[in-house]
Write a structure and sequence with these properties.
By secondary structure, the protein is mainly α. Among the domains are: 19-121, no CATH class; 164-210, no CATH class. The protein is 50% helix and 6% strand. The chain has helices at residues 19-35, 38-58, 62-66, 68-72, 77-92, 102-116, 118-121, 182-210, 224-233, 238-245, 257-271; strands spanning 144-151, 154-161. A two-stranded antiparallel ribbon has the order 1-2. A hairpin with a 2-residue loop joins strand 1 and strand 2 (154-161). The longest helix has 29 residues, at 182-210. The model is unreliable at 1-13, 138-143, 148-159 and 285-289 (pLDDT under 50).
Length: 289
């Protein structure tokens, strides 16, 4: 079976119907919220006033207030300022390059939530929360997978319809003159169908792996999203994460710098986020309140 590969210049394929995708993205949002609380604090302090000003000045409809794509296509002055403020926030924390803008959509919905629930926006850093609702996704056919690849500087997305193979079953049959009863024949046929159906389904899955249509299931440490949050928002290098936080694998063994680097890259690709490029010099110093 082909092995999963990662590269700083590509995203892993993201299946919008994968039940694990939303859970993985929620894990990263939780890591940002709990491990790097300055991210949400900065969103509130710098972008929320612009959001409230745009809503008031432009009389934005509720749909525009709720849905990020509506904001992107708005040409009103307040909406343009809001787009700029939101992208400046994303650039500061290296969150501005996510597949399908899912992080901006979540941030935008959080701004609406804070503006309609001021008690949430008034919480101190470390207590601020993302909007608790799910991220809206564009519908695609249920028999399709969305495949992404990078060509130059462009992230290309395409739908790939998975071919289906028919399942045929044939049995030699039964006659009342045989030596087994009708019930025994029925039980034997049902057991034979189950066995051949299981073999067919496993063969289809194996072919999906061999042809690269399915990603191999790999056990991974959930702490990788904490490491990704520190790497993106606090600009901690894998070496600093190893020295400061002593990360371990699922078996409890200390991870090397390369192990943490690989885990960060994998976590970023799993959720559709381009990882921050390595920087020279000292990391950003953030203040925890």
């Amino acid at each position: 079976m082909p092995q999963r590969t990662t590269s700083p210049n590509q995203y892993l394929r993201v299946d919008p119907y994968d039940p694990n995708l939303a859970a993985l993205q929620r894990q990263f949002l939780s890591s940002l919220q709990n491990k790097t609380p300055d991210v949400l604090a900065n969103l509130r302090d710098t972008v929320l006033p612009v959001y409230q000003g745009a809503v008031g000045a432009d009389s934005m409809t509720l749909a525009t207030q709720l849905f990020y794509p509506r904001l992107v296509h708005s040409r009103k002055a307040g909406a343009i300022r809001l787009q700029e403020a939101l992208h400046e926030w994303g650039r500061r924390w290296h969150l501005d390059d996510s597949l399908d803008d899912w992080l901006f959509k979540k941030a935008y919905l959080t701004l609406w939530w804070w503006s309609t629930h001021p008690e949430e926006a008034a919480k101190r850093p470390g207590r601020l929360r993302w909007h608790p609702g799910p991220i809206k996704r564009s519908p695609v056919p249920p028999d399709a997978r969305r495949r992404t690849r990078v060509v130059g500087r462009q992230v290309m997305t395409e739908l790939v319809l998975l071919p289906t193979r028919p399942f045929f079953y044939e049995h030699r049959g039964w006659t009342p003159l045989s030596q087994i009863t009708r019930k025994e024949a029925r039980d034997a046929i049902i057991e034979d169908v189950k066995h051949k159906l299981d073999a067919y389904l496993q063969r289809v899955v194996d072919e999906g792996y061999d042809q690269g249509q399915l990603d191999l299931p790999i056990k991974a440490n959930p702490d990788r999203f904490d490491w990704l949050a520190w790497h993106q928002a606090d600009e901690l290098s894998p070496k600093m994460i190893v020295n400061n936080h002593r990360p371990t694998n699922l078996e409890g063994d200390r991870l090397s710098v390369s192990g943490v680097r690989d885990a960060i890259a994998r976590a970023a690709f799993e959720i559709g986020l381009r990882p921050m490029a390595a920087k020279r010099g000292r990391p950003r110093i953030t203040t925890r309140k």
